[in-house]
Amino acid sequence: MTARVAVIQFPGVNCETESARALSRAGLEPEVFRWTRQASDLRAFQAYVLPGGFSYQDRVRAGALAAKDPLLDVLAEEAARGKPVLGICNGAQVLVEAGLVPGGAGVEIALARNRMRDRTGYYARWVYTRTEPSACVFTRTLAPGSLLPLPVAHGEGRFTAGDPGRMEALLRAGQVPLRYARSDGRVAESFPENPNGAEVDAAAVCNARGTVLALMPHPERAQDLGALSPGLAGAWADARAATRIRGDREAPGPGMTLFDGLRQHLVEA
Amino acid sequence: MARKKVAAKAAQAWIELVTTDPEAVSAMSVVRAHLDPGRAPRSLRRMRVVELWGALPDGDAVAGLLHRSIQFYNPHKERCVVRGSADDPAPTAPGEHVVLVVDRGEERREAAERWWRHETGKSIEVREGVAWLMAFNPEVADPAAAAWELAVLRDRRHGLLCNPHAQEPLVAAAEIPMPWMAVTT
Known about the structure:
- The complex is a heterodimer.
- By secondary structure, chain A is an alpha/beta fold.
- Chain A is 23% helix and 20% strand.
- Chain A has one domain (4-268): Class I glutamine amidotransferase (GATase) domain (Rossmann fold, 3-Layer(aba) Sandwich), CATH 3.40.50.
- By secondary structure, chain B is an alpha+beta fold.
- Chain B has helices spanning 22-34, 59-68, 110-120, 143-151, 181-184, and strands at 10-17, 43-54, 78-83, 97-103, 124-135, 167-171.
């Protein structure tokens, strides 16, 4: 039986269609689940995706209002049972503001305004992310150290914590499964390879079980190999060049690896 | 030609939408629906606070400069009250509690500083935060504590207006400090 995945749409979310398409391509059964439905209906799904966008117009703070929605109460209960949850960009901000990642007591970290050299505000570009050793179910198909080019597009994507050692501790605990990197595989350390100033170059943070992932880059926008930026280097760029020659622009791109990881996990669960 | 008097070292601009603020409306709605309704405020307003620090002209000249540049506010949509000294009252209503939320390390407004330098030849520092003004019904025993509780995010059930992992909540006692941000962040 195909696993059902709820793609949760709050008002202002705008990446639900492409997120659902990526899930479908991975062999899953996505369904856009709007905020007006009964929260308890969420229990019928095996996994959840909170897509990108601007939930509630980012009022008060990105993700802050959606984090209080009754849907998040059910989502937290289902996540506690081990059901996978992927928050992408604004979805990541919702998960952080709701305290579902890193998943300790209450809200432990923030996704703060980008900190960039000689600029402020919203920033969009392709970045390299490096896979770190982790129990994360979404990166399970990726060997540690492998590079995944993904696009970012946000104004508030800087993982940070009030406790100065918290992000470092999460990295050591395997709860930072993806870090911003350079094309040669070294961690980014500075702008623009680290596009927002995130501590420990974190592009994503997961809970201790690896089932809930707050991810700032957009894997759904990298589901087609032909969508990769021409300026990228590495194995994925080589694969893209080959597909251009074959005319197969919709061959699975790097973003699909995360959705494939979800499918594999659900098959085994 | 007489030189312009340079007296004040700090000024505060309190900027509020002329129309109902949608952020405050949404915040109030969420507070009433999903947080402790017994301690919800009777009213919740939101104002941007822009603080200037440096060699400033007098209050009227500061107000005139702020009015001229979209770096500070849009006079077609927002009203602005300038405090030129600590003796000038902040535009708060009696009984309102104020929590100023500042993005830690990101409070400077460098584009506004550049504009100011271009217009006046003077270098100043410009900082910005968001003030949430709350009034509570008399049955709320400790309104100052309730304001703090509403402001500082702890979990899905407690706090909303300030994520303390990236933001600093500043609470004024009876008087609104001047400067407020420059000396505390």
